[in-house]
Amino acid sequence: MTSPREDLAESCFQCTPRERAVFEAGIKLAAVYHQFIGTPVSASNVESLERAIEEGVKVQPFVEDVKVMIRRDTLRRKKNEYDYQSLTGDMLDVTVTIRINEIKVIGRMQYIDAIKYPLMYVQEIISS
């Protein structure tokens, strides 16, 4: 049984549950990119930043799981006390799992060197 609020939200989506799950995966990946790019990052805070991003995504609707990995090979040492590095798209490797009813979508954001772009894509769709 769903609530009137959930029913109202669902009525706005003129698509299948599969299409909605794909949409939700894209929204979550785009949110990670646009909310966190530019965040100061270093070897000393990289793990806590990964967990903070994951925890922020996990509270959003339909998220079953999320894994964030910031590529350690992109981090550099500080040049001086005023120097710091900002998170960029090529540093992120994010996998988000969305579940709506019997549909599970795994979305991915990963820097693809061949196209020089942090690509967001549907990695897998599973119907139970």
Quick tags:
single chain, 128 residues, alpha+beta, Pantoate--beta-alanine Ligase, Chain: A,domain 2
The percentage of residues in β strands lies in 25-35%
The proportion of residues forming helix, as a percent range, comes to 25-40%
How many strand segments?
6
How far the N terminus sits from the C terminus, by CA atoms, comes to 20 Å
Write out the CATH superfamily name: 7,8-dihydroneopterin aldolase (MptD)
Task: Assign an overall shape.
Answer: elongated
CATH class: Alpha Beta
Number of helices: 3
Q: Compute the number of structural domains.
A: 1
Q: Report the sheet with the most strands, covering strand number, pairing sense and barrel closure.
A: 4 strands, antiparallel
Order of the strands making up the biggest sheet: 2-4-5-6
Q: Briefly note the structural class of the backbone.
A: alpha+beta
Order of SSEs: HHEHEEEEE
